[in-house]
Amino acid sequence: MTLWDDAVRAYLRAGLPFDEAESRLWLAEALLSCGDLVAATEQAARGAEGLRAMGADPAHARALVRDIARAGPGGGASPGGLSRREVQVLRLVAAGRTNEQIAVALTLSPHTVHRHVANILTKLDASTRAGAAVHAVTHELI
Fold first, then answer.
1. Which of 92, 34, 30, 89 is nearest to 64 (CA)?
2. Are 57 and 22 in contact (CB under 8 A)?
3. Stretch 21-44: mean pLDDT
4. Measuring CA to CA, how many Å separate 55 from each of 59, 63, 71, 89?
5. Which of 1, 14, 21, 114 has the fewest CB atoms within 10 Å distance of its CB?
6. What's the rounded mean pLDDT across residues 11-35?
7. pTM over 0.70
8. Alpha helices (H) in the chain, listed in sequence order
9. In this predicted model, what pLDDT tens digit does every residue of 71-81 receive, in sequence order?
10. Rounded Cα gap, residues 94 and 92, in angstroms
11. Got the DSSP string for 18-30?
């Protein structure tokens, strides 16, 4: 998380509010995956505030806040400890999409999709995309 903290500070110093807000949302996802719900909530709120100030739609932030609420007492984290974005990627992997197709569908770079797939395989202890797809079906993610 130190790198996300560094990114937030660097974008803030550089006067790049959109990148700062997006980095805060990614930091919030990292904090959520580590179980730090208070810090995750704070970063998600600050990211959403930054996006709204620029007139951008903070849909990602709203979804993240819902994920944080579900992870709290009485909530439920996603099976395998996957982030919301990783679940989105996993659904598309299970549908047979390539990294390039997933990148287009989620407006991400192919490199970012590759990183998400690698993280998914690690978190699920799966050695193949097919193994990850089986997990998605088994846990009713698709």
1. 30
2. no
3. 84
4. 12, 18, 29, 27
5. 14
6. 89
7. no
8. 2-14, 17-33, 37-53, 59-71, 84-94, 99-106, 110-124, 129-138
9. 765 444 566 67
10. 5
11. HHHHHHHHHHHHH
